Amino acid sequence: MPESTTDSAPSRTVDGFLSPGLGVWDIDPGHAHVAFTGRHFMLTKVRGQFTEVEGTIVVGENVGDSTVNVVIGMASVESGNQSRDDQMRSADLFDVEQFPVATFRSVRVDWIGIRGVVHGNLTIHGVTRQVPLEARCWG
Questions:
Q1: Distance, CA of 104 to CA of 71 (rounded, Å)
Q2: Residue 57 CA from chain centroid, whole number
Q3: What residue segments make up the domains of the chain, in order of their start?
Q4: CB atoms within 10 A of CB 106
Q5: I need a surface site. Which of 37, 71, 90, 94 has the fewest CB within 10 A?
Q6: Through-space distance between the first and last CA atoms of the chain, rounded to whole angstroms
Q7: pTM of the model
Q8: Has residue 138 got a pLDDT over 80?
Q9: 4-136 topology per CATH
């Protein structure tokens, strides 16, 4: 088990690395960034983000026992082009009328030092796929 120190503080030291403190942490939408890169006609890249993000991170004594649960407001998509955003919100793609949110629920966390991979189930448009998300502690 990694050596850790905590004082009910927002951070702790684990194996010599600054890490989040133990407990339940609400995701601050102002500091969260959920972005995507897609292809348009398989030729050009389209980049965008979702501005409505909320959820919780539960940090366990062993970082690998931590969990992440996120809800993304699909209507908050922004790609820098209003007509493209409207198209993405329509029934042609995200269908935000029928599927207003996407969710991510972690199933496993692998962590070494200040970097990790959060494996989880991402559900968009009613379809769930397992995806890995790279994560990093900033110290």
A1: 7
A2: 10
A3: 4-136
A4: 18
A5: 37
A6: 22
A7: 0.82
A8: no
A9: Lipocalin (2.40.128)
